[in-house]
Amino acid sequence: MLVGSWVYVFTVAGQAVRANTIQDEAFPPAAQAICADTIARIDELPAPRDTNTAAERSAVVVQSTDLLSDMLVELRAIAPAADDPEDGWVQQWLDDFGFYLEDRYAYAEALLDDPEARFLITVRGDRDRLTADLDQVALANNMLDCGTPKDV
User: Fold this and answer.
1) What is the DSSP letter of 142?
2) Is 117 exposed, middle or buried, given 0-12, 13-18 or 19+ CB atoms closer than 10 A?
3) How far apart are CA 59 and CA 51, in angstroms?
4) pLDDT digits (tens, 9 = 90+) for 3-57
5) What is the pLDDT of residues 140-151, one digit of tens each?
6) Cβ-contact 15, 7 below 8 angstroms
7) Would you call 116 helix, strand, or coil by DSSP?
8) Residue 18 burial (CB < 10 Å; 0-12/13-18/19+)?
9) Most CB atoms closer than 10 Å: which of 77, 91, 104, 128?
């Protein structure tokens, strides 16, 4: 069993990391700096779970998602172009992050109608692992603050 685990780590998991590795060496550190700044600003906000009402929780989720939306604009400005033969897929990763942000805004809106609303990630096509995919790219490129935020 232990040997099988290591075989998995060095083959299957290793392939996923290589497949998610950005070749443009300038993008990951620049992106990490942008994302780290955004996460620091989000950390200054009240945690949504610490709010007293659903309306307050909704407002905090909107504020943090607005910051993430601004971050996404900054990332798109420095990301490899969609027609880049090696890294064009980074634009799809950013598109996926945009879908994630849409779900955050939908959650904030739902809270106004239902204080017990739950944060749900929309399944898009055959991709039911959106946050895992976002996080894998962030991890593979040492951009940990560019993964899905843990505030909601």
Assistant:
1) T
2) middle
3) 10
4) 555 454 445 444 444 578 999 999 999 999 999 999 999 999 999 889 999 999 9
5) 999 999 999 999
6) no
7) coil
8) exposed
9) 104
pTM: 0.85
> For residue 74, what are the CA distances in angstroms to 2, 79, 108?
43, 9, 23
CA-based torsion, 50, 51, 54, 58: positive or negative: negative
Task: Quote the tokens at residue 18.
Answer: 């290589």
| DSSP symbol at 145 | G
Output the six-digit token pair for 115. Answer: 């204080």
- 42 and 67 Cβ atoms separated by less than 8 Å: yes
DSSP 46-91: PPGGG-SSHHHHHHHHHHHHHHHHHHHHHHHHHSPPTT-TTTTHHH
Rounded to an integer, the average pLDDT of 116-142 is 86
**Helix 130-140 and helix 89-113: axis angle, to 10°?**
130
DSSP 80-104: PPTT-TTTTHHHHHHHHHHHHHHHH
Which pLDDT score is estimated for 14? 46
